[in-house]
Amino acid sequence: MLDKTLLEVLPAGVFDKLVHLRQLYFTNNKLRKIDKGLLDNLIELEELYLYGNMLQTLPVGVFDSLVNLKKLHLGRNLLSVLPATIFDKLANLQILRMYQNRLTGIPSGCFDQLTKLTELSLHVNYITHLPSDSFIQLQSLVMLMLSNNKLIALPPRIFHHLPNLSKLSLFENQLSLLPVSTFGKMDKLKELWLYDNHLTSLADDLFINVTHLTVLTLSYNKISSISRNAFRGLDKLHKLSLQQNHLSILSENLFSYLGQLRYLSLSFNQIQSLPRDIVKGLHNLTVLKLEMNLLQNVPEGLLDSLAHVQQVHLHNNPWKCDCAISYLKQWMSSHSKVIINSTQQKNSFSTMKSQSYMFLVLSLQIHLFVSACPDGCHCYNLPNFVICNGKTLTEIPTSIPPHIQILQVIHTQMEVVRANAFLNLSSLVTLIIHQTQISHIDLGAFNNLDHLTRLSLEGNRLERLPAGLFDGLHSLQILVLQSNRLTSVEPDLFNQLVSLKDLQLHHNRLTTIADGTFDHLTQLVKLNLGKNKITNLPLKVFDKLGQLQQLWLYENQLGAIAARSLANLNSLVELGLNSNSIQHLAANVFSALPHLKTLTLSGNLLSTLPQGLLLDLPKLSQLTLYENHLSRLMPGTFGWDVFSNLGQLRNISLHNNRLQSLSPRVSLHLNVWLCDCGILGLQDWLKNHPDKALAPNRVTCHNPPALQGRPILTLVDESLACDAQSAPPVNYTTGLIPLQLNTEGERRDHYILTAARSERTNAVNGSYFFCLQKLLSTLSLLLTLIPFQLCFRSSLKWSILNSFLKIFSRTSICFVMGMIKHLPIASEQPIAHSSDDNGIKMKRRKYNSFV
């Protein structure tokens, strides 16, 4: 392995004597060329890794002697052209990766000899066209990645000879049309990714040949019309995403072919009304997203067929409060366990499930019309809210009511935001500009927005933001810049955002972040830099972010992480490094992160983990390492000495590696076991698997005091009471972790039983204050909705009044009992009990073996 040696040239004959070499890594160097003949003696070579260099061309015949080659990685170079015969002798090649180069096209017949190829990665290039016969011989191909190119059109029948294709990615191109002949018979295609293109319509039977599709993403396009039978044949589809398009009208029974659909997103469109039968037949649907549209009501009966729905997102629609809204109110009241709102909307009642809160959520989303409103906009109050989505709008209207607090500008033809565009809107708290044609924002555009706390510029065409653009926004707490075309960030851009807590920069084209960029963001809690093209991190780039809790760097091109760059992130709880090109980690890279709970390292190139890597992460509860090149786990990394320091680890994912063995024994001692009736399952497992637990007699009780120090194996049923009076106010949990190891050799499924001690919970939990808040909210809501009852029938009036009386009495009792007992009011812990003089005891259950 010759990694990061900074070599620019390989001398002739350097590999001549390595005739039995199977793997060659020459990665992350500065290699500019490979001379013909350099690899001629490597006749047994199976894997060749040349990614992360500066290769500009490949000489004809350079790979001709590598007849046994199975994997060829040429990603992250500067290749702009490929010789037509460059791969002709690689008949055994299975994986070919050429992502992140400068390719503008593919020669006809270039892949014709690669009949065993299963993966072809061409994403992040500049490809503008593909020959119609590009993939005609690739009948073994399973994964084809063409995303993030400049494809304007696809030749007819280009995908007609790929019977084994399972995943096809075409997102982030410039496709405006998909002919019906695009997709051939592909019974194994499961995932089709088409988001972030320029599609305007979907024709009948477009997907008729991909009947086994489970995931179809069409978001971030310009789709304004979908033919009635566009989705015919997709009876196995699970997920359909149509968000961020230009839809205003949906055909009746448009989704009737999608009987297995579980997730449907129509958010961020311009839908004004829904056909009565639009979701009819979607009996398996669990998530329905309708937020950020122009809906004023829902047809009666529309949601009744959704028997398994768990989430219905309705927020940020201009609901009209008249008699027609009664169906939606009744449905919400009768589905109190369904999450009605989105967890992403600030100050939303996102997870409140009682009837009173469902009614409260509804009242907050019924906006009343405000008279004076500019053309192309809709104005509402409660709160003061304006949506501007006129397709003819080319600039921010000047006649927007000055007292508004929320302004949304979506789906317009606006290309520029001028200086002082919001000068008269000094009360603005939230400003959202989504899915427009904006490519430039003048300096001073956000002048006089002293109260602005949320600014979202998602899904535009911004390539650059001038330094000083956000100056004066001292109250800003959330800044969303995701899904633009930013290639760099000015070092002084964020200097005056002293209150910022959440910065979203993901899904751009950033290649690097300069030192000092975040130095003034001392209050920042969340930073998302995922889905960019970042190749390295300056050592001091995060030095001033002592309050940061969540840092996402997923789907970049990072080859390494220096410990110094994370040294000052003492508050970090979540770190996402998945889907990069990381090959090595220093043993101390995470040593300064004592509060880290979630660490994702999946989808990298790690072949080993250093000893002691996790020693300084006592709070780690979730670790993902799947889809790497791990072949063995060092004892110093995952041995029992390390597991003893990971007392809160609940989930570890290691599938899709090269592991061939893992010790099946389990260490359970030195935990604070609560020996009540809930310990019976563990006792059964210890008795039935004495060979699988280390020191089973040292697995002892910690509570209750009467049993402290007693081995769990010696307990008898009669001593295991579940007495609410004597139980300590601490949650002790036992977690079963399924650890699946998909290996290239031997596959084993291990179930590791780990004991994790959770943090002490607050027994009081603010219960009586919570009930007081509910009580006051109920009274306030009753007064607010009294005028709206005028349009209700007499029986409905009494029904509403009766509901409020019930809510009022419940919340009153809740408040009083909370004050008297000073105890948690709402316990979510189910208790199966029977009366007994000695306490409350649970019946012994039958437990299946864990292993």
User: Into which percentage range does the β-strand content fall?
Assistant: 5-15%
Number of helical stretches of at least 4 residues = 7
Strand segment tally: 37
Quick one: CATH class of the domain at 1-150?
Answer: Alpha Beta
Extract low-pLDDT stretches: 342-371, 639-644, 723-768, 787-797, 819-851
Placed side by side, the strands forming the largest sheet appear as: 16-17-18-19-21-23-24-25-26-27-28-29-30-31
Amino-to-carboxy terminus distance: 39 Å
At the fourth CATH level, what is the homologous superfamily of the domain at 1-150?
Ribonuclease Inhibitor
Looking at CATH, which topology of the domain at 1-150 would you report?
Answer: Leucine-rich repeat, LRR (right-handed beta-alpha superhelix)
| Biggest sheet details | 14 strands, mixed
What's the shape? globular
Judged by helices, strands and strand pairing, the structural class is mainly beta
Mean of residue pLDDT values: 79
Protein name: LRRCT domain-containing protein
GO molecular function: transmembrane signaling receptor activity
Pfam families: LRR_8
Organism: Callorhinchus milii
